[in-house]
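Final report, Chapter 2: Outcomes

The project's central promise was a pipeline that accepts a single protein chain and returns its three-dimensional structure in a standardized token representation, suitable for archiving and comparison. That pipeline is now operational. To close this chapter, we reproduce one record exactly as it appears in the project archive, with the input sequence first and the structure output second.
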Amino acid sequence: MSASTTRPISRRVQARVMRMVNVPMRRVLGLPFRTPLSGRLMLVFLTGRRTGKSYRQPLSYVRQGSTLLTPGGGKWKLNLQDGQPVRIRLAGHDVYARPEIVTDTDEIGQLLEAMIRVNPRVKSFTRIPEGPDGRPDRAGLENAVKYGFRIVRWHLDEPGTRPPAA
């Protein structure tokens, strides 16, 4: 890997810490009842796009009306397909949601602002610098999007519905 594509040390450290923290989070978020953490964290059940391996990924979320918004900075989002139902554990219950991967920089900026208003800790996960007006810095946001940052908008399916059998 060349120096130009190597992630900064701070991002590598953050990724390593998150991998360690995710181990107990999977257990807590997998419980069949609401926990104090489940108000801002959910567990997403993914299938690897190349390997077919099953994964459980803890993710932060913010409610926006009938949808959930998740910052998508990691590689986990590569296993999503727009509109294909995904099982999530939300507040101790398994539900299905259809992901919509937001790629437009302007829309990502607006959604990120909305997420930060509800949960200021989102700033520490995304690490997109704040501009003088308190909004995400445009250049920092464009750079993050250039390197794969997205917002995933989860459309919750009706209770009791399951995706069609494959």
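Archive annotation: The helical segments are 9-29, 105-118, 122-126, 138-146.
This record, like all others produced under the grant, will remain available to the consortium after the project formally closes.
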